[in-house]
Amino acid sequence: MRLVIEVEKNTYPIECAHESPIALLLAGLPINNWPDFGTIVACKNLEWRLSKADLSLFTLQTIGAEDGDLISFEKTNYEETHFELPPLGDRMNNLIRSIVVTRNPQEKLLETLKAAKCRDDFVKLKNDKIYMAHTTFAAPAILRYVLSHPDDLGGFMLVYQKWAAQQHHKMQSLDERLEYTMTHTPELLTPPSTLYIRGLINGHEVAAMIDTGAQTTVMHSSLAQKLGLMEFIDHRMGIAAVMGVGGKTRPLGKVFGIDYQLCLGSIAVSAIILPSDGTMSNHFILGLDVMLCHGCVIDLPNRRLTFSGHHEPILSVEECNKIDKAKHGSLH
To answer: Which GO BP terms, alphabetically (predicted)?
Structure first.
């Protein structure tokens, strides 16, 4: 069969047998340093998360590949949680050991339902490609056992029972952690509001977002235009691209000596001017450079910033918007 393999945006046409292990496809390609801990394999709108060992166990037939298909490989940092198989014997012994005997009628019904679901899952994991692909993410050890022992229903039930018990214990632990957080630190369940201070630049009221993760202070060009700062952009600095949440952005330049007038004084600010992209067109982000220069102290319990001994109230974005609506419309 003929296939097209895509790895790291490069494509390679290959010919191979339907029963070929997936590891064989990677072995014949000019790629280096493929990870030992995980690979996302995509074929026919399905994704399979496979360990290094799985790449040898899974074949093109397993993932449903056909002649002419495109198969893509992507590295992943996923590292599978260790799962130890229970002691297993031959198929008959495994089947006998997998039967749970109980005299309680309710428990007997429950065990019957569990066994029926286990049998159905065993069949689906051998025939349903969508279910198989999902299981490589949810329970890879289960699928791995089915592929290695396709006729051992008893062994599968033993593995399934141990995996289910492990998952039950894990969910109990997660519930306990969530309950503790809800009781003792419920504030951690909701993301905090972004922090702002307000001041004046050239007579315009401007909210500055406090961002201790930003090395430099930045302003978008549409806001700089409103504040009359565009003519003061210095293009001589050779500023490198700025890395943000949306990726790298090439600055227009930098404006020095901006007078940012606060409630109890003013501070000198220099800001990199970024081109507006329509989503953050009016943002003014106060970075670490200005905070360190003016000895800024962030006092969260009292919701204030201190610049050179002067206290400035910290506002939430909701408080900023209320002020904007009461005046002349939001600048951000």
So the answer is: proteolysis
Q: What is the pLDDT of residue 332?
A: 45
Across all residues in the chain, what is the average pLDDT? 85
Residue 324 has pLDDT above 80, yes or no: no
Class of domain 195-326: mainly beta
- pLDDT category at 257 given cuts 50, 70, 90 is very high
CA distances from residue 264 to 207, 261, 296, 310, 311 in whole angstroms, order as listed: 16, 8, 14, 6, 7
Report the predicted TM-score, pTM, of the whole model to 2 decimal places: 0.62
Burial of 203 (0-12, 13-18, 19+ CB in 10 A): exposed
Count of residues in the chain: 332
The ranges assigned to domains in the chain are 2-75, 91-187, 195-326
Average the pLDDT over 110-131 and give the result.
Answer: 89
- Phi then psi dihedrals of residue 43, to 5 deg: -155, 130
Half-sphere exposure of 157 (CA within 13 A, CB side): 25
Residues designated catalytic: 211
Q: Report whether CATH 3.10.50.40 matches the domain 2-75.
A: no
